[in-house]
Structures are given as C-alpha cells and as structure tokens.
Amino acid sequence: MLSSVGIAGSMAAGSLEFLSDGSWTKRLHPGLAAQNGILAAKLAAEGFRGPASILEGRDGFLSAYAPDAKFHLVNQDLGKTFEILRTSTKPHACCRYMQAPIDGLTQLAITHDLHSEQIARRNCCLGSWMAPRL
Fold this sequence. Notes:
Layout: H1 2-11, H2 29-45, H3 61-65, H4 99-111
Helix pairs in contact: 1-2
C-alpha cells in the first residue's frame, strides 16, 4: 500500500495553470487521478517500488504543497474518522466562484417564471481578484 501511495504521489499533478489561458487540462485531472491510483496499486501489487516517504519526505507531497505541514495530522485517527464524509458535491459543473451566481439566477427564474428567451442580457459581478482567472 505504501508503494502504491508513493507511486501515485509521484504521478500527481493537478496544476492550476490552465487558468492562464482557459485550456482544457482541468477536465483531465479527476480521470488521471483515478487512472493513476489504479495503475499505482497494480504496479505495487507486482512489486514495483515507490518512495516510502512520499508524504513527509524532504521532497515529498507535503513539502511541495504545504511547507508548514503537520505530518502527525496525516495519520491522526486513521481508520476511525474519514474526512471524505465531511465533503459535498458541487451542484453545477463549473468553477466554485460561479456556483452562487448560478443558484441566484436559478432562484430568480423560478420565482419570476423566467425563461431563457425572455432574457436579453445578464451581468454577473465577481470580485476583482477573480478577473485574471477568467
């Protein structure tokens, strides 16, 4: 199992650089993550070795993504609590910053019995910090 996690960690990416030009790579991230997890497990099952310190090592996952990471929290309550149970699904297939505006527009349409052919224009204001990402 440790080799499997090490292999998967070495194959991880998920860069947000797609935001710079609207490229399509974000659509690949979940599928590649699932594919790589399965491949890592199969490789490990066949004896392929991955780095045992992929999480906490000097050049491991935590150092790459959280320089002040607290490794002791990674396995705290391991097998007793499952953080994934505290997550939810996105109701709309888009950026999290567009979730609320979509909900608002949907509520307006329901409340006022609006239909797409009745709407000539819509404006959606986001924080100025979001402009470079759109």
